[in-house]
Amino acid sequence: MTLSLDEIKRYSRQLVLPDFGSRQQARLKNAKVMVTGAGGLGCPISVYLTLSGVGRIDIVDMDEVDLTNLNRQFLYGPDDVGKPKVKIAARRLTEINPEIEVNPIVEKITYDNAFDLIKGYDAVVDGTDNFPVRYAVNDACAVNRTPLFHGAVLMYEGRAMSIIPKETACFRCVFPDAPPAGMVPTCREAGVVGSMTGIIGSIQALEAVRYLAGLDIGLKDRILILNTDTMTFDKVNVKRREDCSACGDVFIKKPVDEVCEVRSQ
Ligand SMILES: [Zn+2]
């Protein structure tokens, strides 16, 4: 796949990078990526995938824009309140970069539909904030062998991890089971600042873009933990487990019960 003159100009600031050229850009153009969640993480993730020139982006979310989203979800404004997030996001992203295809999917991801929904993608970048969907996305990516770029934010702490199925630890290798209901508060209960989701979502998008372009990535078998109270970035090494119920030798279905209505960050 060759690049047009407009594309060469649009992406010229990344094409001049020493390890990034037209071959890497063409790989991005050929890539098909799913973004799960169009919220606080989904906004920076989808914007940076769009700006980088990922050829096809499908965004899944069933929520409508709410006024409480507007401290962090920068693809939306007050006029969008009550409208489906993914439709507003897809329109805005297509305006930003008409060279790519953005598809809105108004759908609730469940353990039952995740395995069919997440099929045929070169990568999934996860912007959901709740355990039932996070584990469903992880298990579906493990079974379908789809690289997954995980991220999570709560209060002033954020985490990110890149998962290449059968090669690196998956989310379940590290956290085999979800914490008991109510143990981890949601961002609605505990709070979240917009720039936190901006930082973590940008890291997820950067890892995905580097991976799709064929470059090395830094968060394989590592969880990045960002604490902005002290402004420290720590990396914790993690290991793949052969007996993991998702990516191990034998896949075991382990849906996580939905305990309350959940929303993307
Ligand atoms: Zn695993």
Short description:
With 265 residues, the chain is an alpha/beta fold. It has helices at 5-10, 12-15, 22-30, 42-52, 85-96, 114-117, 131-144, 171-174, 187-190, 194-213, and strands at residues 32-36, 56-60, 101-105, 123-126, 148-154, 157-163, 222-227, 232-237. It has 10 helices and 8 strands.
Plain-language structure description:
The protein has 265 residues and is α/β, with parallel strands linked by helices. It has one domain: NAD(P)-binding Rossmann-like Domain (Rossmann fold, 3-Layer(aba) Sandwich). The protein has ten helices and eight strands. The chain has an eight-stranded mixed β-sheet, with helices on both faces. The longest helix is centred in the last third of the chain and has 20 residues, at 194-213. The mean pLDDT is 94. Zinc ion (ZN) binds next to helix 8.
